[in-house]
Design brief:
Blueprint: E1 3-7, E2 10-11, E3 18-25, E4 34-39, E5 46-51, E6 59-60, E7 68-73, E8 78-83, E9 92-98, E10 101-102, E11 108-109, E12 113-114, E13 118-121
Parallel strand pairs: 2-13
Antiparallel strand pairs: 1-3, 3-8, 4-5, 4-9, 5-6, 7-8, 9-12, 9-13, 10-11
Amino acid sequence: QAQLVESGGGSVQAGGSLTLSCQASGSTYSTYCMGWFRQAPGKEREGVAALYPGGVSPGYADSVRGRFTISRDAAEKKLYLQMTSLKPEDTAMYYCAAGCRRGYGGVPVRPDYWGQGTQVTVPS
């Protein structure tokens, strides 16, 4: 099993940057797909970015590619999402996830485990 705790959310002006962190625990961390999802008010939860095991390239949603970067610190069991050039449409609850699968275009789907979420707000 995996336990996930996010941090780093907040309110940031459009064009600004923010880095989310996810502290993972559980013995299978290194073998999991680890990713970030988000859910805006009134919208479905969507995959944003993921790291896949076995040397597979990271996957990003088209809406964030080139602006967001996913990374991990395996020794600390932490996952990060560096977000730059933030837009109002990036406003959402962001969730760390583990045990995801690689969907179309490399976007993560159907994770086995979720964190509790951290809010990111970019006022318009």
